[in-house]
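Sample entry (319 residues):
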Amino acid sequence: MPETEKHRLQRAREFILRCETNRELQINISYTSYKKLRKEFIEILFHYPCHLNYDYDNGILTIVNFRGRVCSFACDILTDLALNRAKTILASEGLPDEIVGSLQSLGNPTIHSLEPNIDLRPDRSIFSSTDPLVPRIVFIGGVSLEYPYLWEKARKWLTGIRCKTVLLVSFKEKNEFSTLSPPLHLTVAEREDLYDKMNNAFVSTSKDRFEALAFGGNIWYDQLQEVFVELVRRNSSEPDGLESSREYLVRDGVDVSESVPRVIGGLRIGDFVPKISVRSLAIRVIPVDFFDRELVMDTIWGARIGEALDRFLASVVTV
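Predicted structure, serialized as tokens:
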């Protein structure tokens, strides 16, 4: 029996109320239902780990739950490294302070595009204040998402919003985590004691492998099987008008980031600043060598531990 609009709306409500990080749901609902859902949650959405993006032309609602520590921390560190390196290069080339200072990093503001009619929200972005309406570089994180879905997100940013460059940051955990049911019933002292023991056990794991973080008979963060960073930009000579370059940080649970170059995907100064700010071609083609392997991998390793502990706390009912 086909799913009705009423059932789809209820499924969207239930997805929001489950509050599980790293989840995304795409669902076809009418604009009227979207407005009803948004009005219903408008006063409490800030208490739930999600935001709503609506594709007006196709009637598709995407509910994006806030990222867990691994995805959000990785996007944060990559953004900061790229931004700081670009500023350093601009300063070393003698560009005035107002040009260097025009580059800014933002979190995840909603960007509305009329062509096509969609609302999008990046995980992180880099703007130039000389052209503030459209981000120059967008960072999109994904946890256990199918690659075509991530690619479509990049396509919308590049062809709809018309940003310059997209960096996809993808993570694949062997098995998705679900909050324990029934939950653990612990006293405050028991919870704190277990938390400390779990933290100590996890910290002793190897930084070179991303095996499952297990404790007390439960897997709190499964093996991190794959991590890659992929740069996507427009290229009219390609069949779909886009080109991409991917670098793997983790494959089959093993850290392979030693092979990742400091310049990912040919990122260059021209990706950061508009021509109105920097016209010199010699400067615009300077590669931005921002990737710091040790810092990025340590960030991911530590974030996994933090997210595993977050999952433990979310599975505890204090008695």
